[in-house]
Write a structure and sequence with these properties.
The structure is a homodimer of 142-residue chains.
Chain A: H1 10-31, H2 36-48, E1 50-52, H3 53-59, H4 64-76, E2 80-85, E3 88-96, H5 98-122, H6 124-141
Antiparallel strand pairs in A: 1-3, 2-3
Helix pairs in contact in A: 1-5
The first copy, chain A, binds a DNA duplex (30 and 30 nucleotides) through helix 2, helix 4 and strand 3.
DNA sequence: TTGTTGTAGTTAACGCGTTAATTACATGAG
DNA sequence: CTCATGTAATTAACGCGTTAACTACAACAA
């Protein structure tokens, strides 16, 4: 049967849950004038160093058109550098730049505090359980 | 500690889970040229009849600026009607129109099938558990 | 009545999601 | 080599999220 009230609707619940969690991170990102997606892209590059655009989009969960815009913004602020792949003029290689690493390093401690706070308030056990359920939902529907 | 891999990151997991679920509903909405948010607004109006804009925005989980745009679109297609509240010239009352009800009725069976399919594949028990966890996460963080 | 404060909606500006179309380059058949 | 096909990335178009500014109206005090 259909969810009677919107609170028990799965799409709604997922939307609100994400909103609630992101509300904790948003001020941190806004303070450094970085969007959530730009932050995800930077993190992937920070961990991987140099990555092809397609793989980067995939790992950061961003669509190609969005990635193009994000790259422009990040490149403009010298957070990353953009180069064509040698041997294939279509591919683009993105690399994190010093300013990008600096930003990552600057925000990581704050990020850690927020994560810990959420985990502490929500409970480690429940968080793991929730992540498991989400993981299998994703696996089952995708 | 920070989530090592993005799959165990709560914001990411919530994002992907919502994406996975909405992917099931998107074709249905697209086929009738309605966006997800327009659909939510219509559903609220369908259940409530006439609602003030502020309450509508709240119940449909849409921000006021978005609601303004959605109202324009839905009014243009005669799905809803818009009137000023008598006694308070600021307030706006939205009401579902026949064409809007028709759309709701046309899509509901399909919606039911999708919900049932998700529930069956994922498991009723797990779905309830997931909704409980999400609900308390929302309550705890908001 | 007038001026202040508060509230409901709207508008504006910017970025991302989504889909479709387009460009630039690579690859393989002939 | 040339042409067709395929692929990576970009661009375009439209709608929503988000924040801030602004308009219209209400409420209330002086």
């Amino acid at each position: 049967m259909l969810p009677e009230n919107t609170r028990r609707s799965l799409p709604m619940a997922l939307l609100h849950a994400r909103e609630a969690v992101m509300a904790r991170f948003r001020p941190m990102l806004a303070a450094h004038d970085v969007t959530e997606q730009q932050w995800r892209v930077l993190r992937v590059l920070s961990e991987a160093g140099s990555v092809e655009a397609t793989e980067l989009a995939d790992r950061a969960s961003v669509l190609p058109p969005s990635l193009t815009r994000i790259i422009k913004a990040l490149e403009g602020r010298k957070f990353i550098t953009r180069n064509k792949a040698e041997g294939d003029g279509r591919r683009v290689i993105l690399t994190i730049a010093p300013a990008g690493s600096t930003l990552i390093d600057a925000l990581s401690p704050e990020r850690l505090v927020i994560y810990r706070d959420i985990e502490q308030r929500y409970g480690h056990e429940r968080l793991e359980q929730l992540l498991d359920l989400l993981e299998s939902l994703i696996a089952g529907e995708s």
